[in-house]
Amino acid sequence: MGDRMFQFHFRLHRLQMTPARSTLAESLRELYQFSVVDYCMFGLMLLFSAACGIYFGFFKRSTGDTTPESSSSGSDDDESGNRQRSTTGAPGGGGGTSKKKKVISSFGSSTMDEYLLGSRKLKAFPVAMSLVAGYISGVTILGTPAEIYNFGTQYWLIVIPILLMGVAVCTIYLPVFCSLKLNSSYEYLELRFNTYVRSIASVMFVLDELFFLPMIIYVPALAFNQVTGFNLYVIGAIVCVVCIFYTLLGGIKAVVFTDAWQVVVMFISVVVVVIIGTIAIGGPDVIWDRSVEGGRIDFFNMNASLYERQTFWAVLIGGFFYWTSFNSVNQTMVQRYMSLPNLKKAKLSIAMFTIGMGVFVSVCCYAGLLLYGKYYQCDPATVGLVTTDDQLFPHYVMEAVGKLKGIPGLFIAGVFGAALSSLSVVLNSTSAVLLEDILKGLFRVNPSPFVANLFVRGSVIVLGLAAMGCLFIIERLGGILSVATSLSAIAAGTTCGIFTLGMLVPWSNTQGALVGGVSGALLSGWVSLGSQFAGAAGEIAPHKLPVSVDGCIEDLLTNVTIVNPAYPDESGVFPLYRLSYHWITPIGVLTVLIVGTIISFLTGPRDLRYIDPELISPVIHRFLPQESFGNYGTASRSTAGSVVANFGEEMQPQCSRVVHTVEHNGQVTKSR
Questions:
Q1: Are 83 and 226 in contact (CB under 8 A)?
Q2: Coil/strand/helix, residue 466
Q3: Would you say the C-alpha torsion 324, 329, 332, 337 has a positive or negative sign?
Q4: Which residue has the higher pLDDT, 67 or 238?
Q5: CB neighbourhood size of 644 (10 A)
């Protein structure tokens, strides 16, 4: 989905150009028109995406699921990811025999398990590519080069937090999710705390995704409009319809495998543009020399100020907290981790995802230096050739390689491929949360398989249409977008803080989780929303590095008054509002952990002798009392077969289930 805190800091409103510059910009657009080949490249991307939905919805779906007609032996930890069941037949029945019949659905995946989790049988590499594609949105491709162009290379060090994030996710969070075989990450919060904590986190997730939906499509549609003049609302609507179509039909399988080839298109599109641009400009040495001269090369800004946008400490510390917060517990990521058969495959997938993200982000950062090497003497924004930062890279593509038929089309196909990937992941994962955590967890409704099928697919349609509808009003939603930015900060920091409290602080209790979560949400939301309003009021502004127009042709300078940018005096602004956006997520996470731990001790910490170690991260197991391991698995077994722990009967393997009773501490627990 991309670094949302980073994405939201790119303005969406358009600035007005003077008539002279507008006319020249239109002339340049006419000079670098999309060719038939370019439109074909873009059309093929949409066509293949739709074809994936048809393939996985009707031709590649599972048709071998069976339902028992009599008792039979079960399976032990089957590949669909369901918990261990007895291999003993019914009493007196020996091994038993059963007659099984195939369950064949006439529409899409045959079960919700297949639709939402791919029956937990997907392969590591496609899932890794899907993770990369889902995390990268069109704003990442367009915004990262602009960030380097405007603020220098300090942000490039984000690759270090990305690598550290991979280690943290694999060692702290992933083993817990894989051991519990969860369908939704938010189920954990009910097992560890209670249903209220789970409901708060899941509702926060749904609201965050609803606000983020229009951003996913709008920015690449704006880029398409920049290079073609095509109506951005029409192209945005077309892309939304295609995404709804293949997500609705194919489910997680279509999402994963469509993402896998889309990320290849994304990578190739950016790399081809970068290689051609580097050769045209004279090589990497020329780019580096111009960037050094322009002050763009700065990897070690050791300024300890929390107010500066990009510093060594802000990128490393804030970047680690944000990337870990999103990739460790967010449902859009965990759902794909759970589509893999075991922990080993999940770790392998995350390793490939981490490396892939590091490489892709590095290419985008280098593209930012390429932009500066091209425009170091004629800034397109100053002379009005572009009106927003995220139009800078598409403008370069059309100007530098627009004469090469097919290359602009490949680039735009890559940008929209990123948008499709992010949108499809949001549609699929949010529909799962609406079913599992909202309908079943919050409202305690246990729908039949048919109703669950309709509910999930209906959710995909409604969410997709909501994204499409917001395209037409997003430019008028300045205040709403500020709220969306704050909600993203709240969701990232607070949710990760609650999960981390549960997994790394074993004595934490429900009261600590609730009070800590509310405290983290209020503080991070206050900081984020306050900074948004302060920026909108002109009280604070990011300090961009200087640009030049000395090399621009005379026509571009007509009616242009070149003045040095005047930045507001921020000394009178409330200090928290001036913080770099990198620090918002750490504030949320640390507030939850500190307040949650204190409240847990004040209200009576959990007795570690009776805690279920399966709910605690393995890195903490060495500190747990030995007697606690007698409770291993009791939390999940006590909810087996209930609404809160499973997607329902349609999610279970079609085999007989033998109920056993286990007495523990005077209580009888049923296991299946």
A1: no
A2: helix
A3: positive
A4: 238
A5: 16
Instruction: Tell me the two tokens of residue 586.
Output: 């750490």
Judged against a pLDDT cut of 90, whether residue 239 lies above it is answered with no
How many CA within 13 A on the CB side of residue 455? 21
Residue pair 528/196 in contact by the 8 Å Cβ criterion: no
Q: What is the CA 74 to chain-centroid distance, rounded?
A: 37
pLDDT of residue 524: 92
Q: Which of 276, 315, 285, 245 is nearest to 406 (CA)?
A: 276
pLDDT of 399 strictly over 60: yes
Query: Which two three-digit tokens encode residue 153?
Result: 């290379």
Burial-class residue 27 by CB neighbours within 10 Å (0-12, 13-18, 19+).
exposed
User: Cβ neighbours of residue 626 under 8 Å, at least 6 residues apart?
Assistant: none
- Of the CA atoms within 13 Å of residue 568, those in its CB half-sphere come to 14
pLDDT tens column, 333-371: 999 999 999 999 999 999 999 999 999 999 999 999 999
- What is the average pLDDT across 511-520? 97
Model confidence over 435-446: pLDDT tens digits?
Answer: 999 999 999 999
Is residue 424 within 8 Å of residue 255, measured between CB atoms?
yes
pLDDT in tens, 144-185: 999 999 999 999 999 999 999 999 999 999 999 999 998 899
Torsion (CA) 323, 419, 330, 388 in degrees, nearest 10: 50
Distance CA 199, CA 205 (A): 10
Strand, coil or helix: what is 101? strand
Supply the DSSP string of 573-596, one letter for each residue. Answer: S-GGGGS-GGGHHHHHHHHHHHHH
Give the H/E segment covering residue 119.
Answer: none
Q: Are 465 and 458 in contact (CB under 8 A)?
A: no
End-to-end CA distance of the chain: 38
Q: pTM score, two decimals?
A: 0.84
Say what the pLDDT of residue 61 is: 62
Q: Hey, what are 183's tokens?
A: 């369908």
Question: Which of 261, 283, 265 minimizes the C-alpha distance to 407?
Answer: 265
Chain position carrying tokens 């704003």:
139
Closest CA to 210 of 438, 373, 403: 438
Largest Cα separation within the chain, whole Å, is 95
Which pLDDT score is estimated for 504?
Answer: 98
Share of the chain above pLDDT 70, in %: 79
Cβ contact 12:388 at 8 Å? yes
